[in-house]
Specification:
The protein has 450 residues and is an alpha/beta fold. The protein has 13 helices and 15 strands. Bound molecules: 4'-deoxy-4'-aminopyridoxal-5'-phosphate.
């Protein structure tokens, strides 16, 4: 259990949702099953219906409150229906919703400038799109155009999107259809020491993993590459990360062979990792291209690619256009998110509250043998569950059972990893210490007697 006394109930919350007057849960489920695409899936044996949100909490149609530790899949960064974001979006929708970038509007310039101010010097021009997949597509296109090299190196266990090009960069059989994907994408061994085929200290594994990039380039490409795309901490892959020397050595290898380095900050950006605003800063590297989505908009369909001007120029040889990209409403949402991260002190909160959470998880690992590994930074944490600490056999069914149990106790949690056996904790960054203590209490109970 945690150092402090656990709270056996959810911490109090002043918000009360309005009574739900819409279609019943049964009707919603029936419509969903009959009319929506069968590829859509829900969590839980008995799908949860969610109709209201307030900061770190969600409410079902009966008004029951849940602590949301998954944040709409790492997307609600500053809080559900954060008042500042709501106000700015409402104001903008009422005034002007859409124009496209063929006319001037202040919001796009203001937001691009605000992002540039938060990036390392030189990374100061931005193209806006609507999803992480689009952002990564565009980043890889720019890297290929700028360098003239077609080959891209990605990492095993990565997730970069579901479009044909990004599906090619994604490295989980579970997310890859047997369809045509971008050719010339090669997957190097990721540096996660817990499941690495290499042996040694985490630092040695990182060095060996970075050396694998060199081999891949020498054996599998024309000896030159367009770029390298990597998440500073792999998200969908189950919060996997290597030692602090990895990304520096990997970027070094890529640059030796003419490639650009793309940091996929879709999950790690905007203060979530606590110590830094951007995930790559934890590893002391500066990428050439940064892609962002999810937390950038707190739920607005907003994504972005920031790079240096000379790289961006590579995309001006033909026309590139994105109808909704940079629209006034999502730009207003993005600006309100940046302001809220600063005004609410959310990066620091991620560091402090995330540290408390991680310490608590490490304590749970002492009493629950099913916990094979606890990893992550700030409010991006993963708990890998294994049937046996020696064989590391993934505890898939047990992970699902933990999710069912935590839901019963008012906690929504995510999962990830190739085998779906890592609990993913990535809540809105406004999570409090009391929320953490309650979550740890619930996890302790849920992990008992599996
Ligand atoms: N990159 C990362 C790291 C992601 O986690 C995701 C989404 N899970 C994407 C890219 C793709 O984003 P989207 O679903 O918005 O296309």
């Amino acid at each position: 259990m945690t150092a402090t006394a656990p709270t056996p109930t959810l911490p109090p919350c002043a918000f009360t949702p309005k009574p739900w007057k819409g279609p019943s849960r049964a009707e919603v489920l029936a419509m969903r099953q009959r009319y929506t695409h069968p590829a859509l899936f829900t969590l839980y044996k008995d799908p949860l219906m969610v109709v209201d949100g307030h900061m770190q909490y969600l409410f079902d149609e009966t008004g029951r409150r849940y602590l949301d530790l998954f944040a709409g899949i790492v997307t609600v960064s500053v809080g559900h229906s954060h008042p500042r974001v709501v106000a700015r979006v409402q104001e903008q929708v009422a005034r002007l919703m859409h124009t496209t970038t063929i006319y001037l509007h202040p919001n796009i310039g203001l937001f691009a400038k605000a992002l540039a101010e938060r990036m390392p010097p030189g990374l100061d021009v931005t193209y806006f799109v609507n999803s992480g997949s689009e952002a990564n597509d565009l980043a890889m296109t720019m890297a290929r155009l700028y360098t003239g090299n077609q080959d891209i190196i990605a990492l095993r266990n990565a997730y970069h999107g579901g479009s044909p090009t990004t599906m090619g960069a994604t490295s989980h059989s579970t997310w890859k259809f047997p369809t045509h994907q971008s050719a010339n994408i090669h997957h190097a061994i990721n540096p996660d020491p817990y499941r690495s085929p290499f042996t040694g200290t985490p630092e040695e594994i990182a060095t060996k993993s970075a050396a694998d990039i060199r081999d891949l380039i020498r054996f599998g490409t024309p000896g030159k590459v367009g770029g390298f795309i990597a998440e500073p901490i792999q998200g969908v892959g189950g919060v996997t990360l290597g030692a602090s020397n990895y990304l520096r050595e990997a970027y070094g290898a890529i640059r030796e062979f003419g490639g650009l380095c793309i940091a996929d900050e879709v999950q790690t950006g905007f203060g979530r990792t606590g110590a830094h605003y951007w995930g790559f800063q934890n590893w002391g590297v500066t990428p050439d291209i940064v892609t962002m989505a999810k937390g950038i908009g707190n739920g607005a369909p907003l994504a972005a690619v920031t790079t240096r001007r000379e790289i961006a120029e590579a995309l001006t040889g033909r026309i590139h256009f994105n109808t909704y990209g940079g629209n006034p409403v999502s730009m207003a949402a993005g600006l309100a998110v940046l302001e809220s991260i600063d005004a609410d002190g959310l990066q620091e909160n991620s560091r402090v509250v995330g540290g408390r959470f991680k310490d608590g998880l490490l304590s749970l690992a002492k009493t629950h043998d099913i916990i094979g590994d606890v990893r992550g930074m700030g409010l991006m944490l993963g708990v890998e569950l294994v049937k046996d600490r020696k064989t590391k056999a993934p505890a898939k069914e047990e992970t699902l059972e933990v999710m069912e149990r935590t839901r019963q106790m008012g906690i929504l949690i995510g999962k990830g990893g190739l085998d779906g056996n890592t609990l993913r904790i990535k809540p809105p960054m406004c999570l409090t210490a009391e929320d953490v203590d309650y979550a740890l209490y619930v996890l302790d109970r849920a992990l008992t007697g599996l």
